[in-house]
Amino acid sequence: FSNTCTDDKGAGNITYSISGNSHTTLITNATISGTNITLTIGAAKTGTSTIKVKATDSDGLFVEDQFVITVAGAVAPVIANPIPDQSVAYNTVTKVISISNVFTDEKGASNITYSISGNSNTTLITNTSISGTNLTLTIGAAKSGTSTIKVKATDSDGLFAEDQFVITVAAASVKILINSGGPNLTYNGDTWAADKNFSGGTAYNYGTNAIGGTLNDVLYTTERYGNFNYTIPVTNGKYTVILHFAELHHTASNKRKFNVNVENNQGSLSNYDIFAKAGGTKIAKTEQFIITVSDGNLNIGFTSVLDNAKVSAIEVLTNTSARIITSDPAQQELKKDTIPVPVKTEIAKASVFPNPFTVSTQISLKVTRSSKVTMEILNFSGQLVAKYPEEFIVAGLLYRKEFFKKDNPAGVYFYRITTDTGEYLSGKIVIQ
Fold first, then answer.
1. How is 108-170 classified by DSSP, letter by letter?
2. C-beta atoms surrounding 136 within 10 Å
3. Closest by alpha carbon to 424, among 386, 375, 366, 358?
4. 344: three-class secondary structure by DSSP
5. CA dist., res. 429 & res. 426, Å (int)
6. Rounded to 5 degrees, what are φ and ψ at 203?
7. Which residues contact 227 (CB under 8 A, 6 or more apart)?
């Protein structure tokens, strides 16, 4: 403080002393040497003190100045990058998570000691350990569910911060296949169980029928109809539900309508008309929903509006077992049987009548936007047997092409329609 005070007889005429210290526990000692003041601060003390400095000249006259000194408290570690929630597959043994950039401290990363301060599900996460900045979680065998893990960062002053995250261990893969109204059915490696888990309704079998839009015709020739419910026991979690339909009785729309409620309306169908949605009679149609079960049972209710509600089959799949289902199940069947037809476009919808046929059939098409369209017919081996010239179709207008049996033997064939954007639509044709 050499320039703090002046005197008419010069700086050498001034004697300095401490005349005040408002917090002697914080500032335990104050000394002056020349024009330097030294303050001694109490160990582990924080707060403020007002210090007064007195300057006295040789005539005994003086002046005082004062200032406030603040001793800041220690600063706890800070959460800089929260640990994100984690997900692992069923039967994962361990999960290693880096926590190197999660916390910061005013004295540096080396001033932090890590520990686990919480684990909400010790049956799921059976052990936790930290080595350096790697956190290792050990997961119980054949366990699934969630646990909240708390990580504590403590500094050398004993101050700490905690971060937490949720780890989710997926449930075992679930694949429930129910042949509604029918017996056990094995197709393409999948076994569809005989109708079960239902209450109400009536089973019916239409017998042998060729069903468009699928190679698994038998699945769609049985049904449960009326007012009925399915209560399917499952482990709580997220599922894909796929309902399979085909209109085998009515030959026009507005003849059958019904409502479907999937797990408290997480999924629903209202005034559902199979004929209208599939584009005709004897054509397979699927509807897909993603739902979450929290009470141990998946509930699906069918309520008649006009004529009887009905369903041909039900699939319940976890994410790990689910397959991508388009609105036309023929796409999945075609892929399984290596017929080279890509996924369905939503631009065009088509139907075939009659199907099966003995002499000729008509393939009818509408597009929702005007497009150039080409049509091809392939046999079951994927070989081209007919190709129609490209035509421009106006949106909303009906486009028809006739396919004749001619020299083609009886069997299964596929039409493939390509729009000017390269998108495909396909379906099955049966020659008897």
1. -GGG-EEEEEEES-TTTEEEEEEETTEEEEEE-TT--EEEEEEEEEE-TTS-EEEEEEEEEEP
2. 13
3. 375
4. strand
5. 10
6. -85, 145
7. 200, 201, 302, 303, 304, 309
SS3 219: helix
- HSE, CB side, 13 Å, CA atoms: give it for residue 280: 18
DSSP three-state, residue 278: helix
Residue 281 CB partners (closer than 8 Å, separation 6+): 247, 248, 249, 250, 251, 275
Q: What is the pLDDT along the chain (432 residues), one digit of tens a residue?
A: 888 889 999 989 999 999 999 999 999 999 999 999 999 999 888 889 999 999 999 999 999 999 999 998 788 999 999 999 998 888 899 999 999 999 999 889 999 999 999 999 999 999 999 999 999 999 999 888 899 999 999 999 899 999 999 999 887 778 899 999 999 999 877 899 999 999 999 999 999 888 887 778 899 999 999 999 999 999 888 888 989 999 999 999 999 999 999 999 999 999 999 999 988 999 988 888 889 999 999 999 999 999 999 999 999 987 544 343 333 333 333 333 333 333 334 455 678 888 888 888 888 877 776 777 888 888 876 778 888 887 777 666 667 788 888 778 888 888 888 777 666 677 788 887
Read off the pTM.
Answer: 0.46
What distance in Å separates the CA atoms of residue 235 and residue 251, rounded to the nearest whole number?
Answer: 40
For the stretch 304-341, what's the b/e string if a residue is b when 16 or more beta carbons lie within 10 angstroms of its beta carbon? beeebbbbbbbbbbbeeebeebeebbbbbbbeeeebeb
CA distances from 100 to 32, 76, 147, 160 (A): 47, 17, 21, 16
